[in-house]
Amino acid sequence: MNPTILxxxxxxxxxSASVIQNGHVLSNIVATQxxxxxxxxxxxxxxxxxxxxxxxxxxSQALQKANIAKSELDAVAFxxxxxxxxxxxxGCSFAKSFALGLDLPLIEVNHMQAxxxxxxxxxxxxxxxxxxxxxxxxxxxxxxxxxxxDMEVLGQTTDDAVGEAFDKSAKLLGLPYPGGPMLDKLASxxxxxxxxxxxxxxxxxxxxxSGIKTSILNFVKKNTAADPDFVEHNLADxxxxxxxxxxxxxxxxxxxxxKEQGIKEIAIAGGVSANSGLRATLQEYAPxxxxxxxxxxxEYCTDNAAMIAMAAHYQxxxxxxxxxxxxxxxxxxV
Length: 334
Description:
This protein has 10 helices and 10 strands. By secondary structure, the protein is an alpha/beta fold.
């Protein structure tokens, strides 16, 4: 069967809808929420309200762009979690109502698994098994991917996610929200060896980023006390040094996992996979370690419904459906 599926993503602050047919993404519409910029971070209640405003026009645009009528759909998919409860509720409730009205089966999708399966939207596609470094504002994981629907977390952060470390570091430097991309841009012109920040080494494949955030806070306080303009005069070098430490923390564990698992197929996914420094470092490591590296297109790094649609495609083929009793799970695991 060549299923045609409508997928909905609403886990955080992007409302997105996508239509996929026979494994080919026909549309991927994303509505962002600029309102959070004035608060310096995502406000959950405002996010859920914005989802309610955006979801109908976003779904309509996705169907229109795909040139697919509602009567042609075979299933409706939605993000079950992880994510913000209020935001997830909007997508889940809409998907259930939409499916019920059209008498269509429902597919609940794990947001983090979907990030990984974004690699199957376009070529080249990784071969199984492969390792995926899944990095975002809420998660940092090394995942062993045995098949489209068989994944195991080998290591993860024990405290903060690397995306949060990027954003919080940027905020300490006075950069506007979202700070991670701005820090990345400034880092490209700085000296990554100018200021030493700690690279925490946990046991096994796990990560920790709380220590480096504390180190950066103390660094900023100490140097601005002596020179109020210190950050402004050294901003690019500070950003480059922070980014280098965070990326090296990630790569150290990825190299270890690849070596001990005997895997040469290496991928990255999640919002932080859009970071230019991480993408360049992965390409640099590839020939040194004999890796085949897979980096998603920028549009599939951040939250989007195309990745939800791709995951739903494989779940549809496996007969993995849910019921009208499905409910969001903000802390869903891979």
